[in-house]
Amino acid sequence: MEREEIRDSLLRDLERELHDLCQPVSTLQCLLEYGQMCGTPEELLLAVESGLVETARIFRCIEAMRGRILQGSVE
Amino acid sequence: MRILIVEDDRALGLFLQKGLLLEGRTVDWVGDGDAAVRYVSEQEPDLMVLDLGLPCRDGMDVLVEMQGRFHRTAVLVLTGRSQVEERVRCLDLGADDCLLKPFSLQELLARCRAILRRKELFADPTLRHGGVEMNRMERKVRRGGVEVELTGKEFALLEFLLQRKGQCCTRAELLREVWKMAPDSATNVVDVYINYLRRKMSEAQVEGDAGEGVIETVRGQGYRLRSVGVSGGMGECGPMVMAGGGGRDGAGGDSGLVAA
Which residue, A26, B60, B68, B137, shows the most beta carbons closer than 10 Å to its own? Predict the structure, then answer.
């Protein structure tokens, strides 16, 4: 029973973190497509600069998910 | 077509706005639920792209607040949660479509186009402003009950001005929306057709008409339909919004490529 509760809690946490991950992935996807659609050097540069900010957010989300899984496997 | 983006993530909101601007839409962006409800109450945009996770009032509450009140505004919901029940609830509350995050900008733009196409089909075929009435199904225009014969392009130009309900339309917008030309095209075709329209509409001048033109020039900005009961003059354009394109926005017909 306790094991099941831990599993359910882990799944809920992962779902929340997956939701958080969707935000920067959406932004990254949209700005890359926007850069491709525009094709001007200014917009491409803006897409790259903003893209790097979003990948940093993605890294943080992945790190949180990784930590959660590690924590779950220990418990 | 006026679109409102409701998204609290600054970067995503900015690029959604930029993407929709590329499609030639007029796009505003707000970052919380309260601002969204206020905007819709005041402006009734054609479409609202609504994120569910918002500060102040979340997207679901915005839908509840809007339910049954703002029929002119279609809603596309963006959600990061994969539960089917949530999407069903959004649709039942009046949303027209839901898009699951992460999504592609191309898909979002295509869904917006589809919603606006469907909306147009069910729209009231009659546009009215300042004593001018246009039936888009019958392709008929009347001013004070008097029928005015227009060419296809004149009709399209008047239709765009009527859709803006007396708000200023820049020359760049008219070039892009009516002539499907680049907004910075070196042509005075807009000014020429505005003159054609003015001439034809003045011929349909009715009794009690003070003789003012139907279309007024907003100096340095563009053109707009005169509102009945509102004194004329060279006013300013409406509230500042980001609209697609750019380039020459001034009106006045000082460049001559098309002969009037």
Answer: A26
Rounded Cα distance between B111 and B184, Å, is 28
- Bridge partners of B28, per DSSP, are B4
Q: Which residue, B47, B16, B87, is CA-closest to A31?
A: B16
Region B2-123: CATH code: 3.40.50.2300
Residue A74 contacts residue B39 (beta carbons within 8 Å): no
Residues B78, A23: Cα–Cα separation, whole Å: 10
Rounded to whole angstroms, the Cα distance separating B169 from B27 reads 14
A vs B: CB pairs below 8 A: 54
Phi, psi of B177 (to 5 degrees): -85, -35
Mark yes or no for CB contact B101/A22 under 8 Å: yes
By residue count, chain B amounts to: 260
How far apart, in whole angstroms, are the C-alpha atoms of residue B24 and residue B251? 19
Question: Hey, which residues does B146 pair with through a beta bridge?
Answer: B143
* ipTM rounded to 2 decimals: 0.84
Identity at B156, one-letter amino acid code? A
**Total residues belonging to chain A:** 75
Whether this model's pTM surpasses 0.80: no
Q: What are the sequence ranges of the domains in chain B?
A: 2-123, 126-225
* Token digits of residue B104: 């592609």
CA Rg, chain A, in Å?
A: 17
pLDDT, tens digit (0-9, with 9 covering 90-100), for A2-61: 778 888 888 888 888 888 899 999 999 999 999 998 888 998 999 999 999 999 999 999
Pick A27's closest partner by Cβ from B9, B22, B106: B9
C-alpha A30 chain-centroid distance: 14
* Helical residues (DSSP H) of chain B, grouped into ranges: 10-22, 33-43, 59-66, 84-92, 105-122, 152-163, 171-178, 189-203
Determine contact, residues B4/B40, Cβ cutoff 8 Å: yes
A29 contacts B102? CB cut-off 8 A = yes
Which structure tokens are listed for B205? Answer: 């001048």
